[in-house]
Amino acid sequence: MLAIFDNLGFTELMIVLVAAILIFGKRLPEVASQAGQQLVKFRRSLEQIKSETNIDNELRKIQRDIESAVPRDLSVGDMARIASAEIEKRMNSVNDAIQSEVDATSAQVKAPAGEQPAASPPANPPTEGASATPSANGVHAKDAAATSDRSARDEKSAS
Q: How far is CA 63 from CA 73, 130, 131, in A?
């Protein structure tokens, strides 16, 4: 009930009290009693509506569904393995795209001067933030750093 008065300070409450005394005068206790009774009736009707519609049960069911959908039993290691697998999958797709681009370029270079093979677009373009030029072994600098970081973590967790 006092949630209504959360934003009211002492001064505001005193102003409301003085205004109520001026407006209702001697009838203030009677008016306050009636207001209290109306508030109790409102709360009872609200509880009755909740019980008739089973909204509380529905809300609990939805909350349980949400909690069961989010896995809470994953350890940090499990989450790291999942993230590592996802990163590795993305790295492989980028490497495949680079390799297909290299193959297409080498096919163009090897073709006779009169023949130009149709250039095929890369299967998966490099992701944002990734280096556009591969190093000598065909691996991006960032990808190589991520791979070395992951292997260092794997060696640390294995020991």
A: 18, 40, 44
| pLDDT value, residue 58 | 83
The set of residues, in sequence order, having a beta carbon less than 8 Å from that of 149 and lying 6+ positions away, is none
Query: Per-domain residue ranges for the chain?
Result: 9-69, 71-110
Helix (H, G, I), strand (E, B) or coil at 118: coil
**Nearest CA-CA partner of 98 in 55, 62, 137:** 137
| Residue 66 identity | I
What are 48-73's pLDDT values in tens digits? 888 888 887 888 888 888 777 766 66
Instruction: Spell out the residues 6+ positions from residue 101 whose beta carbon is closer than 8 angstroms to its own.
Output: 122
Q: Please, which residues have CB within 8 angstroms of residue 143's CB and are 6 or more apart in sequence? A: 91, 94, 95, 130
| Integer Cα distance of 123 and 18 in angstroms | 77
Task: Pick the closest to residue 154 from 72, 71, 83, 74 (CA basis).
Answer: 83
Task: Encode pLDDT of 16-34 as tens digits.
Answer: 889 999 998 899 999 999 9
